[in-house]
Amino acid sequence: MSVRAAVMPGPGRPIRLQTFSDPECGPGEALLETLASEVCGTDVHLWHGRLAGVPYPIIPGHVSVGRVREMRGISTDVMGHALSVGDVVTFLDVFGTCYRCFQCQVARQPNRCPSRRVYGITSPLSEGLMGGWSEVIHLRPGVHLLRVPESVPYRRLIGGGCGLFTGFAAVERSDLEMGSTVLVQGTGPVGLSAMAFAHLRGAGRVLAIGDPEDRLALASLLGADQTFSLAATSREERREAVLELTSGRGADVVIEAAGQPSAVEEGLKLLRDGGTYVVAGHYTDTGGVELNPHSELNRKHVELRGQWGTDLRHLVGAIRMLERWGDALPFERVIGREYGLDEVEEALRDVEALRVTKALVVPGVRSVDGPPSSD
Amino acid sequence: MSVRAAVMPGPGRPIRLQTFSDPECGPGEALLETLASEVCGTDVHLWHGRLAGVPYPIIPGHVSVGRVREMRGISTDVMGHALSVGDVVTFLDVFGTCYRCFQCQVARQPNRCPSRRVYGITSPLSEGLMGGWSEVIHLRPGVHLLRVPESVPYRRLIGGGCGLFTGFAAVERSDLEMGSTVLVQGTGPVGLSAMAFAHLRGAGRVLAIGDPEDRLALASLLGADQTFSLAATSREERREAVLELTSGRGADVVIEAAGQPSAVEEGLKLLRDGGTYVVAGHYTDTGGVELNPHSELNRKHVELRGQWGTDLRHLVGAIRMLERWGDALPFERVIGREYGLDEVEEALRDVEALRVTKALVVPGVRSVDGPPSSD
Amino acid sequence: MSVRAAVMPGPGRPIRLQTFSDPECGPGEALLETLASEVCGTDVHLWHGRLAGVPYPIIPGHVSVGRVREMRGISTDVMGHALSVGDVVTFLDVFGTCYRCFQCQVARQPNRCPSRRVYGITSPLSEGLMGGWSEVIHLRPGVHLLRVPESVPYRRLIGGGCGLFTGFAAVERSDLEMGSTVLVQGTGPVGLSAMAFAHLRGAGRVLAIGDPEDRLALASLLGADQTFSLAATSREERREAVLELTSGRGADVVIEAAGQPSAVEEGLKLLRDGGTYVVAGHYTDTGGVELNPHSELNRKHVELRGQWGTDLRHLVGAIRMLERWGDALPFERVIGREYGLDEVEEALRDVEALRVTKALVVPGVRSVDGPPSSD
Amino acid sequence: MSVRAAVMPGPGRPIRLQTFSDPECGPGEALLETLASEVCGTDVHLWHGRLAGVPYPIIPGHVSVGRVREMRGISTDVMGHALSVGDVVTFLDVFGTCYRCFQCQVARQPNRCPSRRVYGITSPLSEGLMGGWSEVIHLRPGVHLLRVPESVPYRRLIGGGCGLFTGFAAVERSDLEMGSTVLVQGTGPVGLSAMAFAHLRGAGRVLAIGDPEDRLALASLLGADQTFSLAATSREERREAVLELTSGRGADVVIEAAGQPSAVEEGLKLLRDGGTYVVAGHYTDTGGVELNPHSELNRKHVELRGQWGTDLRHLVGAIRMLERWGDALPFERVIGREYGLDEVEEALRDVEALRVTKALVVPGVRSVDGPPSSD
Q1: CA angle C76–D254–C164, rounded 5-degree value
Q2: CATH number for the segment(s) B2-148+330-368
Q3: CB atoms within 10 A of CB C27
């Protein structure tokens, strides 16, 4: 038997479909038959060579869902749920955390451990099928598997994709108080997830800024009480609207999921004095922004927090929320289209042009237009 | 014109209906026409003389809703919302906080300010109509008014009553993490509120222990995923059930709203290592309980937090949540019966016997059986 | 009898010495005979008209120490310590906090209450002797007095001045972990205080960046383990030194007390991933700075906190520390010179030119060169 | 060559001196020549069989200092400091933390990881020389080494012993605010360390309760401002004294390091409303205590935290503090006597009878009476 995978050979070069021999499952390892992976903004950046330290060639696709084909020495997930061959699972794309370094042991932020590596990004092809754009994913010892509950359609989970967990982490990091006004900048996968989780974690009001129209509709669907189109409103109009909604104060919490430096400038101006600003959308360097330390940081008594990466607990929590809230978290609706392994270049282009919000890579599928029906 | 009010002359003595002359509205003051007040467990304790320092005679009824009849020098509430004569409002029952003492200024917990007083509890009749069991409530300078939004039926708010804010405060104090398992002990007004807000503040699962059956049904209605009847289950059965649901660990957060010392003992045993236990149900002394400092505190690495009283921000947040979630927070369903001013003794007895969960005192009404229709 | 005070008539205009009739002490008020007040950087800004909303003419001098000449209705301070006529006291320069608004009640940050006013800054002369550059200071009802313990020479307290409390607040806001490396940017009064309190609040190492030489010597005296001269080192040299001291990671905590936008840029680069950056030096607008949201905020997983103003608890804590640590906190050494009321223009010029670090205004004194002897 | 070690064969049985063949140093391992280990209260409990799950026979001695004789594949410690053969080091006695379970990954409290094991306690003799009462200590792969700085005499570190880190952890967990009053219950090694670190982490006042006299003297030496002898004062006298010192409020923070259930009852009564109580002394079950949930937990608005175990960061921080503060942290003065390997039974009896506060086990030494001179 053989396995097909889409390989990204290097920046700017065509993606190629390759065939590999079936991997062997070593001790502590698992093999997954890929049900679906995704194309996210980071994959576009990878293709354009905007990330440093990527060991091309790679198989992209960091967050994925699959069915367990084989496991050796694994019987439960972190929550203690039994795992069996045939189960639908996902896994933490991050691996290799050392749990011995300063960041892991003293600072207690393994998300900044220098040993961390990521499936689909910093895993060279030479090490195996370590990315989701492949019919089979090879999980190395130590990779954290999580069972997807039966009540959670896997398209709902992968429809959120990596943004699901990043948005969850951003909301967690905001420590928002029940009843407060949360503004999310950006209506891509991270922003949509941040809205959905802010909505279900006690926000009293969720506002969203983004574009285009279909994404604003998704924002409303997933929890935003009010949306502002970047194209249809001026910065001043948005500011007036936010101030009016908050009796002149500004939002209690602003979550940046836009990835544009100018969003940081605008976001701080929409935040109330003493509010919390979470920067969670800048996974790539898109340039600098001028801030005023007096008015935007010191006098504002701001709490500004960067949120980098996700940890296993974010996946655990997000999946638990999907399980509990069911159809109230319809992330499958974020999926714009499913692409076969031979269509990933098209997927990359569609994501870049914002033609789709979430592009699925489905190794066994060739071409299914439109949002798929629920699982 | 004259005002009727139900007066509690002292412990164990009959409540008497008295008539007073209409109060005058001084500068910084407001007069409310009472729409509804409540009978809560504390009122039963007051009647039995179980609270120290109560300046009988008093007009009970600490949390109430009313319509503004007159105001002098008040034009907005704390959120900046305009207030007008005729508006439906509620108010923080606590007043007199000094904002100058150690607790207010250094410890930053005005809920422990020794100058605090409470409408309906520590407000002697000699000072005026400072309780809700009265046709008119006299709000002194400095009492915080809050507008009840039009989309929130006032019976929904007062159906939650003081427990609504206490439960809100307990959930806030738990700092629960999204997706975690929250167990609430007690299905009275505080417990029901704690469930409802845990449910909408990111709990991954809400469990409830209580009785009788109608309260367990309310628990399910308001957010509990699973309920345990105290009468129908043994302590050991509850423990086994909670451990099974949590892969043997126990709940991440337990909120005590039962008011029984034995609940504290059981609650700690149902809490996972390193979990958070909020004690919010012991507003009266009902005796001691034996705990083991080794196994229940030290080795458990517990975070145990008492929650005393409520602050204005809890009312603000709770009302915001009622506004946002609408029919998903049907606290009007908690109302067992409405009582006229001449029926408050019956109300006290019904509350004590758990015949009703929330008893309303409606000054203008004589006798309306059964749960009232929504506003 | 009459009272002399130095009045600042408006931006850029000469300070004039004026004589006023002796004020009367109303109920809840106190009159202090000024022992010493100070000239801080904000006073220089006031003179140059760099602060908005200042109701000139004013009597400057926000933090002061005095002896109680008269009190009406005041008998203890916030800690419960008895207060008597003749006691040496200081007071919180901030007054008028409303404890009713959103910032006070919901956000719990009275330091952002819009009603706040400040002695010596936003107190117009028309309201009385509300500034420290006066032989007598008139404390209005509600102003918080604090007894200066007998073991604390008042020159030690006023030698720290307003910077003492601002630095204390900045350290509190940093939540520094015991044993961590703290870098303070700026060796003016705020920076020196931040070093001293970081030193005695568990820092494992305190680094300081500043100038000129005499201030670096004060930094060493007050707790800095190592100092870097801005003039004598390049930015790259400082970065190399900090990285070498921290095995390549950067400081765990950086406190900005420099007031220069460029310091914010440098500070973030000297901070380790996931470290905490407190911006506490930008009390005036000195322009903007360009930051990179990707590298300095998001990927760094930064915790950036503005610290605006001080509250009573900061004074309480700082005085408690002065009392406990005695000669280990020799802030009287920061005093460069004492100026009489007729010399405050000279004081302003000396502060602006960094010729003195802390300039004292001593109403009863004409001219005493050099650092004064201890009280 | 051969290695001598003191073996505890089982509860209540005589300690025996045994000779073993020299261990081999495997990959990722290290061998230490023991400079000193300790006898702590837990060792007494071990000897009496009061801990469950101990795999006798064992070599006791969990915290130790030694000189690196051999290392394979280890070159730096967690702080990035170079490690070489001949260096004086200590190590985290806890090992085997899985970093995969719910406690490690979701709850983020590896101190409750069920896979944790401890040198000298849960390390059976059959697995090797895994305890400090041995001439050589065998560090298995994954055990965390820490370099002891040259400026820290090793007797200073081991004089604090395991209590040094436990006390450090208790202070960290208290989150004490600068200037606050901290009361420590217990003057054994944990209590003494808690005082010392509270003292240097910003406490405004440190109070100690304990006995006998020599320990109270050590308390004063290490940072307590005032001590109370359990024998010479009544509970009521202590309460009056604490209330008087705090203007009737009680201590802001109380740290329990006494190990007696009655201490918990007293401690809560000495704590102010809304204060923080850390339970850190109950490493063995010594029975229950009756608490009143109304007055001691709920109305007190208490923050009660158990602190179980220590993590690597606590060692890192404590050593950093020893390095910085030098002779101001003279833990070598806590050492009552040094015992040879053939004298450990006497050491156990001396510790149990409180004849010595810290008993050192020095494999190469036979009998040195009195406090040793500094290194």
Answers
A1: 50
A2: 3.90.180.10
A3: 8
Beta-carbon contacts of A189 under 8 Å, excluding residues fewer than 6 positions away, are A40, A41, A160, A161, A162, A163, A164, A166, A167, A334, A357, A358
Where along chain D do its domains lie? 2-148+330-368, 166-306
d(CA A213, CA A354): 11
Which amino acid makes up residue A216?
L
The CATH classification of domain D166-306, taken from the options 3.40.50.720, 3.40.47.10, 1.10.10.10, 2.40.50.1020: 3.40.50.720
Q: Nearest-CA distance from B74 to chain C in Å?
A: 12
**Chains that contact A by 3+ CB pairs under 8 Å?**
B, C, D
Candidates B94, B298, B305: best to mutate against D (most CBs of D within 10 A) is B298
Q: Which contiguous run of DSSP H or E holds residue A93?
A: none
CA angle B357, B10, B137 (to 5 degrees): 65
Q: How far is B97 from chain D (nearest CA, A)?
A: 16
Cross-chain Cβ contact A301/C307 below 8 Å: yes
Residues 6+ apart with CB under 8 A from D339: D39, D346, D347, D359, D360, D361, D362, D365, D367
CB-nearest to B321 from A168, A204, A324 is A204
- CB-CB under 8 Å, C297 with A112: no
Per the CB < 8 A criterion, the answer to whether B92 and B166 are in contact is no
For residues C370 and C60, the answer to whether their CB atoms sit within 8 Å is no
Q: D177 vs C80: CB contact, 8 Å cut-off?
A: no
Which residues of chain C does A261 touch, with a Cβ-Cβ cutoff of 8 Å? Answer: 292-293
DSSP-derived letter for residue C216 is H
What is the residue-level pLDDT of chain D in tens, covering all 375 positions? 799 999 999 999 999 999 999 999 999 999 999 999 999 999 999 999 999 899 999 999 999 999 999 999 999 999 999 999 999 999 999 999 999 999 999 999 999 999 999 999 999 999 999 999 999 999 999 999 999 999 999 999 999 999 999 999 999 999 999 999 999 999 999 999 999 999 999 999 999 999 999 999 999 999 999 999 999 999 999 999 999 999 999 999 999 999 999 999 999 999 999 999 999 999 999 999 999 999 999 999 999 999 999 999 999 999 999 999 999 999 999 999 999 999 999 999 999 999 999 999 999 854 444 444 443
* Bridge partner list, A16: A7
Chain A CB within 8 Å of residue B146 CB? no
Are the C-beta atoms of residues B177 and B319 closer than 8 Å to each other? no
Selection from D206, C315, C100, C76 nearest residue B105 by Cα: C315
Best residue in B252, B253, B279 to probe D by mutation, most D CBs within 10 Å? B279
> Do residue C106 and residue B144 have CB atoms under 8 angstroms apart?
no
- A340 vs C99: CA distance, rounded Å: 61
Q: What are phi and psi of D275, to 5 degrees?
A: -80, 175
- Strand positions, DSSP E, chain B: 2-7, 16-21, 30-39, 65-71, 88-91, 94-95, 117-118, 136-139, 145-147, 181-185, 205-210, 226-229, 251-256, 271-279, 289-291, 303-306, 335-339, 358-361, 367-368
Considering only the top CATH level, what class is B163-306? alpha beta
Record the tokens describing residue D353, joined without a space: 């009878």
Q: Does D147 touch chain A (CB under 8 A)?
A: no
Which amino acid, residue C312? L
Give every CB contact of residue B189 below 8 A, 6+ residues apart in sequence: B40, B41, B160, B161, B162, B163, B164, B166, B167, B334, B357, B358
Q: Which is nearest to B329 in space by CA: B149, B68, B175, B116?
A: B149
Closest CA to B58 of B10, B2, B24: B10
ipTM of the complex: 0.95
Query: Considering only CB atoms, which chain A residues are within 8 Å of D105?
Result: 78, 144, 311-313, 316
* DSSP conformation class of B69: E
